[in-house]
Design a protein that fits this description.
With 104 residues, the chain is α/β, with parallel strands linked by helices. It has helices spanning 15-23, 67-81, 98-103, and strands at 4-9, 41-47, 50-56, 85-89. It has a four-stranded mixed beta sheet, with helices on both faces. The mean pLDDT is 92.
Length: 104
């Protein structure tokens, strides 16, 4: 049985950096500019002797009508549907925001 974990959160909280760390790769692009990750990105991970698939997702923007952000949210929803677990990332420096509460 394969196990899948999606990394979900608002833009620029470190989802892609965490994905790259888990997968031991640079597969996800990391940038300070919001919206760089748009599609689901899959990688293989081994952690504490367990093998699983991890999915990097773009940042969810609350109630956006922007065509890119609407489609990013759809990609995130697909990742959630196909996952067995979700890692919900927030930014410790800014604390829990209204955007985090919306996503949760």
């Amino acid at each position: 049985m394969s196990y899948t974990v999606a990394i979900v959160g608002r833009p620029n909280v470190g989802k892609s950096t965490f994905f790259n760390r888990l997968t031991g790769s640079n597969k996800s692009i990391v940038d300070n500019i919001s919206g760089v990750t748009r599609d689901r990105i899959y990688g293989d991970c081994e952690w504490n002797g367990k093998h699983f698939i991890v999915i990097d997702t773009g940042g969810v923007v609350e109630k956006s009508q922007d065509v890119f952000e609407v489609n990013i949210k759809k990609q995130v929803e697909h990742a959630i549907e196909e996952s067995n677990a979700i890692i919900f990332m927030t930014d410790v420096a800014s604390g829990i925001t209204d955007a985090d509460a919306y996503i949760a």
